[in-house]
Amino acid sequence: MKYKLGIIGLGNMGGAILSGVENDFEGRILVSTLDAPKINNNDRKNIDIINDNKYLSQNCEYILIAVKPKDSKIILKEIEPYITNQNIVISIMAGVKLASLIKSLPKAGALARVMPNLAAKIGQSCSGIAFYKASQTVQKFVIDLFKRIGKVVVLEEEKMDAVTAISGSGIAYVYYFIHSLIQAGQKVGLSEDESRKLALQTALGGVKMIETHPNQNIEDMVDAVCSKGGTTIEAIKTLKNQGFKKIIEQAVWAAYNKSINLSEENK
């Protein structure tokens, strides 16, 4: 094959993955996107950008499909005639199961279904990966590829809807919480800049504390900050009384069920 890696689709997620891997990837990367004529590629030395999924399928060993789930059937039907057992197809399309990929691309040498998130752009994604017919060599390549953009969890495909709800969509929950905290800070008298700096560093510090104390129960960590009669315990009481944990659970269930529905639509 002329190229080791090809990417079909250069939207938010495809672009994030490309940004995360392009600088230290060995060999050239081929990208196929409808926006190819509009892209200035002069500063990207090891990337070729075209608008030709057929050519990409015929010339790339590993093919990463990064289009929206609603476009999956069109793309899979388009490339199917050109896929052989020399191709390994990687899909990051939410809700598109391995069974659908197997049915659509029966000649593919191996398949991988991956759910990253947008933090891939800065190398901080956490990607869930499920494989089909993948040798150790193929698994290593795919795992190493996604390790370039963050951490990796290899698991059974049955858990991918949960991965979507926690990690794929979860980064937006984090954005939303921090944005709400910043706005609350402004309401109690801080400037936007002051509140933003305080909220961001507090979030970073909290995550680091959890990360560096893996054996410590998180609820115990919450309790450790809640002095009797203090300010924090009043805030936590309010969150509990307003059903904060239940709201988070409902949001996760909503994303989880939507992922399942997408799977049904994309059979």
How far apart, in Å, are the first and last alpha carbons?
A: 30 Å
- Summed up, the domain count is 2
Question: Secondary-structure element order, as H and E?
Answer: EHEEHEHEHEEHEHHHHHH
The general outline is elongated
Give an overview of the whole structure:
This protein is of the alpha/beta class and 267 residues long. The protein folds into 2 domains: 3-160, Rossmann fold; 170-262, ProC C-terminal domain-like (ProC C-terminal domain-like fold, Orthogonal Bundle), CATH 1.10.3730. The chain has helices at residues 12-21, 53-59, 72-79, 98-104, 136-147, 160-168, 170-187, 192-212, 218-225, 231-241, 244-265, and strands at residues 3-8, 29-32, 47-50, 60-65, 88-91, 110-115, 125-132, 150-154. An 8-stranded mixed β-sheet has the order 3-2-1-4-5-6-7-8, with helices on both faces. Helix 5 (136-147) links the parallel strand 7 and strand 8. The model has no long low-confidence stretch (mean pLDDT 93).
Outline of the structure:
The chain has 267 residues and is α/β, with parallel strands linked by helices.
